[in-house]
Amino acid sequence: MEQPSARTAGRKRGLLILGIVVAILGLGWFGWWLLIARHYESTDDAYVSSDLVQVTSELPGTVLALAVDDTQSVERGDVLVELDPADANIGMGAAEAQLARAVRSVRGLFAQRDQLRAQAAQRTADLERASSDLARRSGLLGDGAVSEEELAHARDAVATARAALDAARQQLNATEAQIDGTTIATHPQVLDAEAAVRSAALALRRMQLRAPVSGVVAKRTVQVGQRIAAGAPLMAIVPLQSAWVDANFKEGQLRRMRVGQPVTLHADLYGGSVDFHGRVAGLPAGSGSAFALLPAQNASGNWIKIVQRVPVRIALDPKELAAHPLRIGLSMSVEVDVREASGSLMAQPARAAGAQDGAQPARDASGDDPQVTQRIAAIIRNNLGAQRTGG
């Protein structure tokens, strides 16, 4: 039978070994934390997000055809929905006819100006002739060669010619005021008619709804034959190639977090075999609860402090996204390397309006459709006749 002293010595030896093992493990953990872990902040409260681009019609109309359905991929500029263009075609024809009428009307003003110039020249010649007759008869009055009555008639003729000249000049000034400093092509009436043609062409072009961005179609609600109203949402396009991750970190984890720090991510969809890499794109202006529909009100006597979480935006590598597509709402595990703390706490200023990548096709520098511009020029040219566009 083992003596009590032997059992006590064995127990002490076991406790000593256990203590040594615990101490070694503790030192190992401390060394791992000191050298590696303290330079990283991680969370598994992260989800994939992306823009949700709504497709709406700017004009009412009846749907003639649908080119896409949910889950299908589309490229920017692809036709999604076709509306009945009958009304738009009628409006286009009316606008083109109005432009032709405007050109011919302005042609008439230029022709009237030339006619009034000739008429004013004729009235000037009549006044000079009447003035010459009056001067000749005035010189013969002393010799009795002409009577007082004949001289009075000569004076009346001068007054009549002067009044006619003044009337012709007033008519000429009124006509020139309508066309002064313009040509037929630059006259306000023609420009107004041109604007109506462009507006009608824009309405006709909007009978085809095109994809504003490349992505995947979602939430399609429109059907063939449906009468839609302007502004009604028809479907949405999700540009998954530009998806990002919203990682909800605890407020204490943001102490050393900066814009631009590298991030390693894993998606539950692909497991640990696929690594995603990104960078901190920006830190929000407030916690998630601050922007909730019903923000928390803590001005009460039984207030309890709750650690808040702040959604940090993580920008992903586009090449990795293309190789392993993600979907909105998927869970992600995020680990941020916070060793480089020289970055900014705020994201870069937003780009100016209109700086989005990929401008709309088939537009010139002024934003007009070249085909519409050519059509307008042809209408003006066809209604000018033999007259030039100059004044």
Q: Which percent range describes the beta-strand content?
A: 15-25%
The biggest beta sheet reads: 6 strands, antiparallel, barrel
User: Total number of β-strand segments?
Assistant: 14
Radius of gyration: 43 Å
Quaternary state of the chains: single chain
pLDDT below 50 for ≥5 consecutive residues: which ranges? 352-367
Number of helices: 6
Compute the average pLDDT. Answer: 82
- Order of H and E elements: HEEEEEHHHEEEEEEEEHEH
Q: What's the shape?
A: elongated
**Strand arrangement across the biggest beta sheet:** 1-10-13-12-11-14
Q: What is the CA–CA distance across the termini?
A: 131 Å
Counting helices, strands and paired strands, the structural category is alpha+beta
Helix content bin = 25-40%
Note down, in words, how this protein is organized.
It is built from six helices and 14 strands. The protein has 391 residues and is α+β, with helices and mostly antiparallel strands. It has a six-stranded antiparallel β-barrel. It has a four-stranded antiparallel sheet with strand order 2-9-7-4, with no helix packed on it. A four-stranded antiparallel sheet has the order 6-5-3-8, with no helix packed on it. A hairpin with an 8-residue loop joins strand 11 (262-267) and strand 12. Residues 352-367 have low confidence and may be disordered.
